[in-house]
Q: What sequence folds into this?
């Protein structure tokens, strides 16, 4: 099912702050969950990567609050920034996780999330009429483009493991057969 | 503190310190997210909610929430939850289960919970397998599920939980997909608000013993028609759909079960007298 149906609309600067804030909150939640999963499944390299990603998104979330000044962005987000059907665009896909993932897979997951966020903010920018909304949307597009570029750079540092597939588990979960 | 000054909870406030041990990729992570989002949307505080479960991977959910919880006996979650709701009608009682817990060993409780229509919300994470015990077929497993345990498939007709719920008197019936936690949360919100017994079947992939279920995300789709208030029509629709139709499918109007007398006995001496031989 499409991830963009029923996306909230940014008809004012307040809405856009709320949406941008909620996107970062959701991204932090997902990366923190993935880090916990990898911790429980003893994949320490990925714990560090997902914790770093969660931290980076949290910095971005706090930056949005700072930019919004006195405006209570969290409260406004609770009312406006809801994805009734699809998911918040920058959220990593938990369903694609695997305990045998490598740093390359984790970064691919992050890249896909950043690309969705970039596409989402580009769409908002294209639709924006209000000059303040346009200015902030331009800034957010720039931010997300920077994150995409960072993921691509990091991916060069972490090439795909042999065959591009997840690692072999010498002692896989044994089904009763 | 008066109710107006109690700050609103965030999704994280409903999570416990216990880190889930589900396999990465398991659909149940999304269901946990949907639970916490639903509680935020409803504005209920953790101490106003009880999450009751049976046994299975899916039934681990109460430990991961900060609400009241009861990780019960295999197949008996609904019996526990019914008792709890009768004596504590003020609590929002959500019951979590799996297709093994809810339809095999707990199948009989399922029928009678639908019939009794106590104000509960029953969320079954259906992965068509016993995940926790390593991959045995459940009542919703496809007949051609071919493993060494079931050579050539079980050959058995799968159970149809939604139709059975409708035939047994459930007051609200919906199907959701874990991979869409926003929609699942919205359905759970509606299920909790709806009086009586609400049944939400969540297709929740077991990526370890049913890796084929990762493809469910491409098969699910919205139900093409709105929910009906006619149980027979709803049953006909779900009997003939492809099993991947999502949304609220039935909204009934039976009044929820209400005990005829005050069941909230809080004095243990009084309780003892009542059961004296
Ligand atoms: C009385 C009893 N019988 C059998 C078991 C073994 N057992 C534990 S979980 C389970 C099946 C759980 O399947 P399901 O409800 O589908 O949960 P999943 O793990 O798939 O989420 C069984 C048979 C048990 N714990 N107690
Ligand atoms: S065995 Fe299956 S149901 Fe259990 S946690 Fe793993 S993926 Fe989920
Ligand atoms: Mg199961």
A:
């Amino acid at each position: 099912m499409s991830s963009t149906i029923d996306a909230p609309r940014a008809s004012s600067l307040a809405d856009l702050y709320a949406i941008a804030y909620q996107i970062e909150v959701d991204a932090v939640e997902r990366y923190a969950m993935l880090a916990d999963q990898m911790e429980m499944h003893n994949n320490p390299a990925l714990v560090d990567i997902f914790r770093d990603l969660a931290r980076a998104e949290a910095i971005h979330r706090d930056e949005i609050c700072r930019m919004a000044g006195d405006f209570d962005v969290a409260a406004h987000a609770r009312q406006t920034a809801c994805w009734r059907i699809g998911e918040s665009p920058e959220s990593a896909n938990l369903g694609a996780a695997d305990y045998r993932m490598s740093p390359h897979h984790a970064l691919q997951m992050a890249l896909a999330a950043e690309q969705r966020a970039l596409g989402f903010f580009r769409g908002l920018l294209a639709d924006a009429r209000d000059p303040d909304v346009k200015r902030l949307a331009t800034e957010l597009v720039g931010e997300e483009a920077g994150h995409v570029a960072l993921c691509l750079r990091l991916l060069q540092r972490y090439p795909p493991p042999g065959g591009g597939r997840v690692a072999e588990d010498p002692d896989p979960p044994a089904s009763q057969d | 503190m008066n109710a107006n000054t109690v700050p609103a909870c965030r999704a994280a406030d409903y999570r416990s310190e216990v880190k889930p041990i589900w396999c990465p990729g398991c659909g149940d992570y999304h269901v946990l997210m949907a639970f916490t989002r639903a509680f935020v949307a409803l504005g209920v505080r953790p101490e106003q909610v009880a999450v009751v479960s049976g046994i299975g991977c899916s039934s681990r959910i109460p430990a991961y929430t900060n609400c009241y919880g009861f990780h019960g006996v295999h197949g008996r979650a609904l019996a526990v939850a019914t008792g709890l709701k009768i004596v504590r009608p003020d609590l929002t009682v959500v019951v979590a289960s799996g297709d093994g817990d809810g339809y095999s060993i707990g199948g009989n409780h399922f029928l009678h919970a639908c019939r009794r229509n106590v104000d509960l919300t029953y969320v079954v994470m259906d992965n068509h397998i016993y995940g926790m015990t390593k991959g045995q077929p459940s009542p919703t497993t496809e007949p051609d599920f071919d493993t060494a345990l079931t050579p050539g498939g079980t050959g058995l007709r799968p159970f149809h939980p939604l139709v059975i719920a409708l035939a047994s008197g459930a007051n609200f019936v919906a199907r959701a997909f874990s991979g869409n936690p926003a929609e699942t949360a919205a359905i759970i919100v509606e299920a909790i608000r709806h009086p009586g017994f609400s049944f939400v079947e969540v297709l929740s992939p077991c990526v370890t013993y049913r890796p084929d279920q990762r493809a469910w995300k491409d098969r699910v789709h919205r139900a093409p028609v709105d929910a009906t208030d006619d149980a027979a029509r709803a049953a006909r629709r779900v009997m003939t759909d492809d099993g991947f139709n999502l949304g609220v499918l039935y909204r009934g109007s039976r009044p929820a079960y209400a005990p005829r007398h005050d069941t909230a006995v809080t004095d243990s001496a009084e309780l003892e007298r009542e059961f004296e031989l």
Q: What stands out?
A: The pocket of iron/sulfur cluster (ligand 2) is lined by residues B 22-23, 26, 28, 57, 127, 131-132, 206-209 (CB under 6 Å). Chain B is about 30% helix and 15% strand. Chain B has a mean pLDDT of 94.
